Protein backbone atom coordinates (compact mmCIF):
# COMPACT_ATOMS: atom_id res chain seq x y z
CA UNK A 1 0.00 0.00 0.00
CA UNK A 2 1.27 3.48 -0.80
CA UNK A 3 2.56 5.33 2.25
CA UNK A 4 1.61 8.82 1.11
CA UNK A 5 0.24 10.97 -1.68
CA UNK A 6 1.94 10.65 -5.04
CA UNK A 7 3.29 13.84 -6.58
CA UNK A 8 2.84 13.25 -10.32
CA UNK A 9 4.82 16.37 -11.19
CA UNK A 10 7.95 15.05 -9.51
CA UNK A 11 7.49 11.44 -10.54
CA UNK A 12 7.67 11.83 -14.31
CA UNK A 13 10.97 12.61 -15.96
CA UNK A 14 9.50 15.33 -18.14
CA UNK A 15 8.69 17.43 -15.07
CA UNK A 16 11.98 16.83 -13.31
CA UNK A 17 14.13 18.88 -15.66
CA UNK A 18 13.42 22.16 -17.50
CA UNK A 19 14.32 21.12 -21.08
CA UNK A 20 14.48 23.86 -23.68
CA UNK A 21 13.21 21.38 -26.28
CA UNK A 22 9.70 19.94 -26.02
CA UNK A 23 7.99 17.69 -28.55
CA UNK A 24 4.43 16.44 -28.83
CA UNK A 25 3.28 13.39 -30.80
CA UNK A 26 0.02 12.68 -28.92
CA UNK A 27 -2.00 14.89 -31.24
CA UNK A 28 -0.65 17.12 -34.02
CA UNK A 29 3.16 17.00 -34.08
CA UNK A 30 4.70 19.99 -32.30
CA UNK A 31 8.33 20.84 -31.62
CA UNK A 32 9.35 23.80 -29.50
CA UNK A 33 13.01 24.74 -29.08
CA UNK A 34 14.31 27.81 -27.29
CA UNK A 35 10.78 29.11 -26.84
CA UNK A 36 9.99 29.03 -30.59
CA UNK A 37 7.83 26.67 -32.64
CA UNK A 38 10.24 24.73 -34.87
CA UNK A 39 7.84 22.26 -36.50
CA UNK A 40 7.91 22.73 -40.29
CA UNK A 41 4.74 22.96 -42.36
CA UNK A 42 6.05 21.18 -45.48
CA UNK A 43 4.50 17.67 -45.44
CA UNK A 44 7.68 15.72 -46.23
CA UNK A 45 9.72 17.65 -43.67
CA UNK A 46 7.07 17.03 -41.02
CA UNK A 47 7.09 13.34 -41.91
CA UNK A 48 10.89 13.24 -41.67
CA UNK A 49 10.82 15.01 -38.31
CA UNK A 50 8.22 12.54 -37.02
CA UNK A 51 10.44 9.61 -37.98
CA UNK A 52 13.30 11.10 -35.99
CA UNK A 53 11.07 11.94 -33.00
CA UNK A 54 9.71 8.43 -32.59
CA UNK A 55 13.32 7.38 -31.88
CA UNK A 56 14.69 10.42 -30.05
CA UNK A 57 18.43 10.35 -29.46
CA UNK A 58 18.89 7.28 -31.70
CA UNK A 59 20.11 6.91 -35.26
CA UNK A 60 17.37 6.27 -37.82
CA UNK A 61 18.71 4.38 -40.82
CA UNK A 62 18.51 6.04 -44.23
CA UNK A 63 16.66 3.00 -45.60
CA UNK A 64 13.97 3.39 -42.92
CA UNK A 65 13.52 7.04 -43.83
CA UNK A 66 13.28 6.26 -47.54
CA UNK A 67 10.74 3.51 -46.90
CA UNK A 68 8.57 5.84 -44.81
CA UNK A 69 8.74 8.86 -47.10
CA UNK A 70 8.26 7.04 -50.44
CA UNK A 71 7.27 3.47 -49.57
CA UNK A 72 7.75 1.41 -52.77
CA UNK A 73 8.03 4.34 -55.20
CA UNK A 74 11.16 6.31 -54.34
CA UNK A 75 12.43 8.93 -56.80
CA UNK A 76 15.38 8.02 -58.99
CA UNK A 77 17.82 10.20 -57.03
CA UNK A 78 16.33 9.21 -53.65
CA UNK A 79 19.51 9.66 -51.57
CA UNK A 80 20.11 13.13 -52.96
CA UNK A 81 16.46 14.08 -52.41
CA UNK A 82 16.57 12.81 -48.82
CA UNK A 83 19.80 14.72 -48.21
CA UNK A 84 18.05 17.88 -49.46
CA UNK A 85 15.13 17.30 -47.08
CA UNK A 86 17.54 16.79 -44.18
CA UNK A 87 19.35 20.00 -45.11
CA UNK A 88 16.09 21.98 -45.12
CA UNK A 89 14.89 20.41 -41.87
CA UNK A 90 18.22 21.15 -40.19
CA UNK A 91 18.01 24.81 -41.23
CA UNK A 92 14.41 24.96 -40.02
CA UNK A 93 15.29 23.49 -36.63
CA UNK A 94 18.42 25.61 -36.20
CA UNK A 95 17.97 28.84 -38.19
CA UNK A 96 21.08 30.33 -36.56
CA UNK A 97 23.15 27.27 -37.39
CA UNK A 98 24.40 26.73 -33.84
CA UNK A 99 21.93 24.29 -32.27
CA UNK A 100 22.98 20.98 -33.80
CA UNK A 101 19.66 19.24 -33.11
CA UNK A 102 19.71 17.19 -36.32
CA UNK A 103 22.92 15.19 -36.50
CA UNK A 104 24.37 13.10 -39.33
CA UNK A 105 25.01 9.71 -37.75
CA UNK A 106 25.97 7.04 -40.30
CA UNK A 107 24.16 5.03 -41.52
CA UNK A 108 21.44 7.62 -40.99
CA UNK A 109 20.44 10.67 -38.99
CA UNK A 110 19.69 11.39 -35.34
CA UNK A 111 17.66 14.00 -33.51
CA UNK A 112 19.97 14.85 -30.62
CA UNK A 113 17.39 15.20 -27.86
CA UNK A 114 16.64 13.40 -24.61
CA UNK A 115 13.68 11.00 -25.00
CA UNK A 116 12.19 12.65 -21.90
CA UNK A 117 11.34 15.80 -23.90
CA UNK A 118 8.82 13.86 -26.03
CA UNK A 119 5.31 13.55 -24.56
CA UNK A 120 5.19 9.84 -25.46
CA UNK A 121 7.89 9.24 -22.84
CA UNK A 122 5.91 11.09 -20.17
CA UNK A 123 2.78 9.15 -21.13
CA UNK A 124 4.65 5.86 -20.77
CA UNK A 125 6.04 6.80 -17.36
CA UNK A 126 2.61 7.77 -16.07
CA UNK A 127 1.13 4.54 -17.41
CA UNK A 128 3.78 2.49 -15.59
CA UNK A 129 3.26 4.53 -12.42
CA UNK A 130 -0.50 3.96 -12.57
CA UNK A 131 -0.06 0.20 -13.00
CA UNK A 132 2.30 0.06 -10.00
CA UNK A 133 -0.11 2.04 -7.84
CA UNK A 134 -3.02 -0.15 -8.92
CA UNK A 135 -1.04 -3.27 -8.02
CA UNK A 136 -0.31 -1.74 -4.58
CA UNK A 137 -4.01 -1.08 -4.02
CA UNK A 138 -3.68 2.71 -4.11
CA UNK A 139 -6.64 3.03 -6.46
CA UNK A 140 -7.29 6.78 -6.15
CA UNK A 141 -3.64 7.64 -6.87
CA UNK A 142 -3.60 5.17 -9.76
CA UNK A 143 -6.70 6.80 -11.25
CA UNK A 144 -5.02 10.20 -10.98
CA UNK A 145 -1.89 8.90 -12.76
CA UNK A 146 -3.93 7.37 -15.59
CA UNK A 147 -6.06 10.51 -15.93
CA UNK A 148 -2.92 12.67 -16.09
CA UNK A 149 -1.54 10.39 -18.81
CA UNK A 150 -4.75 10.65 -20.84
CA UNK A 151 -4.76 14.44 -20.46
CA UNK A 152 -1.51 14.58 -22.45
CA UNK A 153 -3.48 13.67 -25.57
CA UNK A 154 -4.85 16.50 -27.71
CA UNK A 155 -6.22 14.35 -30.53
CA UNK A 156 -5.23 11.40 -32.76
CA UNK A 157 -1.46 10.83 -32.70
CA UNK A 158 0.53 12.57 -35.45
CA UNK A 159 -2.72 14.15 -36.62
CA UNK A 160 -1.01 16.61 -38.99
CA UNK A 161 1.24 14.00 -40.65
CA UNK A 162 0.65 12.12 -43.89
CA UNK A 163 1.85 8.79 -42.49
CA UNK A 164 3.71 6.17 -44.46
CA UNK A 165 3.99 2.52 -43.36
CA UNK A 166 6.22 3.05 -40.32
CA UNK A 167 4.37 6.03 -38.85
CA UNK A 168 0.99 4.44 -39.57
CA UNK A 169 2.04 1.38 -37.56
CA UNK A 170 3.34 3.66 -34.79
CA UNK A 171 0.01 5.48 -34.52
CA UNK A 172 -1.77 2.13 -34.10
CA UNK A 173 0.71 1.28 -31.33
CA UNK A 174 0.05 4.58 -29.56
CA UNK A 175 -3.74 4.25 -29.87
CA UNK A 176 -3.62 0.78 -28.32
CA UNK A 177 -1.71 2.17 -25.35
CA UNK A 178 -4.21 5.01 -25.05
CA UNK A 179 -7.05 2.50 -24.98
CA UNK A 180 -5.22 0.51 -22.32
CA UNK A 181 -4.72 3.66 -20.23
CA UNK A 182 -8.42 4.51 -20.57
CA UNK A 183 -9.52 1.04 -19.45
CA UNK A 184 -7.11 1.08 -16.50
CA UNK A 185 -8.27 4.58 -15.50
CA UNK A 186 -11.90 3.44 -15.44
CA UNK A 187 -10.95 0.30 -13.50
CA UNK A 188 -9.07 2.38 -10.91
CA UNK A 189 -11.98 4.81 -10.55
CA UNK A 190 -14.45 1.95 -10.00
CA UNK A 191 -12.14 0.28 -7.48
CA UNK A 192 -11.79 3.56 -5.59
CA UNK A 193 -15.58 3.71 -5.14
CA UNK A 194 -16.40 6.28 -7.82
CA UNK A 195 -18.64 3.93 -9.83
CA UNK A 196 -21.62 6.29 -9.76
CA UNK A 197 -19.52 9.24 -10.94
CA UNK A 198 -18.27 7.14 -13.88
CA UNK A 199 -21.69 6.14 -15.22
CA UNK A 200 -22.02 9.12 -17.57
CA UNK A 201 -18.53 8.62 -18.95
CA UNK A 202 -19.10 4.89 -19.39
CA UNK A 203 -22.46 5.30 -21.13
CA UNK A 204 -20.92 7.78 -23.56
CA UNK A 205 -17.92 5.55 -24.28
CA UNK A 206 -20.05 2.42 -24.66
CA UNK A 207 -22.34 4.21 -27.13
CA UNK A 208 -19.33 5.36 -29.16
CA UNK A 209 -17.78 1.86 -29.02
CA UNK A 210 -20.78 -0.50 -29.27
CA UNK A 211 -18.73 -3.70 -29.63
CA UNK A 212 -16.06 -2.97 -27.01
CA UNK A 213 -16.71 -5.69 -24.44
CA UNK A 214 -14.28 -4.25 -21.89
CA UNK A 215 -16.16 -0.94 -21.78
CA UNK A 216 -19.52 -2.68 -21.57
CA UNK A 217 -18.28 -4.91 -18.75
CA UNK A 218 -17.14 -1.83 -16.84
CA UNK A 219 -20.50 -0.13 -17.44
CA UNK A 220 -22.41 -3.19 -16.26
CA UNK A 221 -20.21 -3.47 -13.14
CA UNK A 222 -20.69 0.22 -12.35
CA UNK A 223 -24.47 -0.08 -12.75
CA UNK A 224 -24.56 -3.16 -10.52
CA UNK A 225 -22.43 -1.52 -7.84
CA UNK A 226 -24.77 1.51 -7.98
CA UNK A 227 -27.77 -0.70 -7.21
CA UNK A 228 -29.16 -0.48 -10.74
CA UNK A 229 -29.33 -4.19 -11.54
CA UNK A 230 -32.22 -3.89 -13.98
CA UNK A 231 -30.27 -1.33 -16.01
CA UNK A 232 -27.19 -3.56 -15.84
CA UNK A 233 -29.17 -6.56 -17.09
CA UNK A 234 -30.67 -4.47 -19.89
CA UNK A 235 -27.19 -3.34 -20.93
CA UNK A 236 -26.00 -6.95 -21.02
CA UNK A 237 -28.95 -8.09 -23.13
CA UNK A 238 -28.45 -5.18 -25.55
CA UNK A 239 -24.78 -6.04 -26.00
CA UNK A 240 -25.51 -9.76 -26.37
CA UNK A 241 -28.01 -9.08 -29.14
CA UNK A 242 -25.61 -6.68 -30.87
CA UNK A 243 -22.70 -9.13 -30.77
CA UNK A 244 -24.90 -11.94 -32.12
CA UNK A 245 -26.33 -9.77 -34.89
CA UNK A 246 -23.07 -8.23 -36.08
CA UNK A 247 -20.41 -10.82 -35.26
CA UNK A 248 -22.31 -14.03 -34.55
CA UNK A 249 -20.59 -14.48 -31.16
CA UNK A 250 -21.58 -14.66 -27.50
CA UNK A 251 -20.29 -12.17 -24.90
CA UNK A 252 -16.86 -12.94 -23.44
CA UNK A 253 -16.40 -15.01 -20.28
CA UNK A 254 -16.06 -11.93 -18.05
CA UNK A 255 -19.40 -10.55 -19.23
CA UNK A 256 -21.14 -13.91 -18.84
CA UNK A 257 -19.85 -14.15 -15.26
CA UNK A 258 -21.12 -10.62 -14.54
CA UNK A 259 -24.48 -11.65 -15.94
CA UNK A 260 -24.62 -14.69 -13.64
CA UNK A 261 -23.80 -12.49 -10.64
CA UNK A 262 -26.57 -10.08 -11.58
CA UNK A 263 -29.06 -12.94 -11.76
CA UNK A 264 -27.98 -14.29 -8.34
CA UNK A 265 -30.13 -12.44 -5.84
CA UNK A 266 -28.00 -10.80 -3.18
CA UNK A 267 -24.74 -11.84 -4.83
CA UNK A 268 -22.48 -8.77 -4.87
CA UNK A 269 -20.97 -7.41 -8.07
CA UNK A 270 -17.18 -7.26 -7.73
UniProtKB/TrEMBL annotation:
Native species: Amycolatopsis orientalis
GO molecular function: DNA binding
PANTHER family (UniProt xref): TRANSCRIPTIONAL REGULATOR REDD, TRANSCRIPTIONAL REGULATOR REDD-RELATED
Family note: Belongs to the AfsR/DnrI/RedD regulatory family.
Protein name in the entry: SARP family transcriptional regulator
DNA-binding region as annotated in the record: 12-113
Classification via SUPFAM superfamilies: C-terminal effector domain of the bipartite response regulators, TPR-like
UniProt-listed Pfam families: BTAD (PF03704), Trans_reg_C (PF00486)
Amino acid sequence: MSTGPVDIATTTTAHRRPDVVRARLLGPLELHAGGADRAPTTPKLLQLLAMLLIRPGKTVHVDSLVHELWNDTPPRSVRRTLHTYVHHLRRHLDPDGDGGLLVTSPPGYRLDVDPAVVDVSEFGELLCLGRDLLAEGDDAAAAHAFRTALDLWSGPPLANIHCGPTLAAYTVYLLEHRRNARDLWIEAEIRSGRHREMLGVLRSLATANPLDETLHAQLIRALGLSGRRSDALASYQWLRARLDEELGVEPCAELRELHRELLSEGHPIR
